[in-house]
Amino acid sequence: MCGELIAVIGIGHDGPHGLSPAALAHIAGAQVLAGGKRHLAFFPDWQGEKLVIGADVHSLVERLKVIYRHQKTVVLASGDPLFYGIGRLLLEALPKDDLLFLPHVSAVQLAFAGIKESWHDACVVSLHGRPMQALLPALQRRAVKIAVLTDAQNHPAAIAQFLSNHGQAHYTLWVCEELGGPGERVTCWTPESIQQQTFSPLNVTILLHGSLSPRERAGGEGLSLEALPLLGIPEAAIQHRQGMITRREFRLLALCYLALHPGDVLWDVGAGSGSVSLEAARLSASLEVFALERSVSALAHIEHNVQQFALANVHPVLGEAPEALALLPDPDAVFIGGSGGRLAEMVPVVVQRLRPGGRIVMHCITLENFALGWELLHQPTLQVDTTTVQLAHAKPLGPWHRLESESPMFILRATKL
What we know:
The structure is a single chain. The chain is 26% helix and 25% strand. It is of the alpha/beta class. The strands form four sheets. The chain has a seven-stranded mixed beta sheet with strand order 13-12-11-14-15-19-16, sandwiched between helices. Strands 3-2-4-1-5 form a five-stranded parallel beta sheet, sandwiched between helices. It has a five-stranded mixed beta sheet with strand order 6-7-10-8-9, with helices on both faces. Helix 8 (248-258) crosses helix 9 and helix 11 runs parallel beside helix 12 (367-377). The longest helix is centred in the last third of the chain and has 13 residues, at 296-308.
């Protein structure tokens, strides 16, 4: 056993010219040189065994695990091997003490340098071999700067189309091709102008949040997504039928009582405009929210709002409870905003399907629904509590102001033991 480290060297488009003397010394002394075809082509006169890193990376890593113990081995990788590179796989397969990393400047660093933007506050998303939906969490957070690592399927024009489809056409796309090489090119596009363009497959695409036109992306009331708070979406930003929306203050209380965690499944039964679903889904992209609504026109509002807020984790469902609940996965939390007069049929199904430790929150406007809900939830498997909330808002009264009260809301909540 030779006891040599396996050197993992980052390399750019400038090839050996951009490598340090230490990196070049490792390559000169190696017996095995692994890398992509493009990387190996930089060393046509190198003598030794060359291993091409292709689609089956895992098999190559398994081979390296055996080879490096007996032969001095160097692995070439693009940019920084520990930044969405082969470095992660090698760290999983080999002892850390047997690895030496000599990174190059990453493509993302070069891309931001190319467009002359700082990137300490940027979000980086890899779409290389991943579905386009991987971009959604960054869009949901309304990230101002997003660096996207692309592939043949998720190319810049496809990304632009995805932005348009999800109401995010206000982003500007900077396409940075062949970074660090003689063919380097940096160009700026709108989602519309880029559609017929083609680019080098070696590119990083940076999305920069542009200015929004008035009323854009906010239900037509002069609000923009970037102006919205992290919690408590104003009613004006949500498309809904007049008066048929859960008020912001009640939504926030519902979220508190639902006690959601990342990865939870939430049922929003009688979703109306989907306001509770929207509010919950923005808390974590890993939440799965099912907005159940029996009205076709109301469901259209939910679908519109989901698209406007780019919330891939909200699933609008047309149907009536309790029958339609059979189509949904078991929930960790259930919000009941409407029952269509079928509360007595719905609650037993909800309780039976609710996972242990799960929470139910029910909003009741009428005394009759409150009394029925209180009775239905009082069973041995549930711990029940209730809260009554009444809002009052300032209204003008001549030169003075008075508080005008709204109807009280009865909030029932239960936890499954």
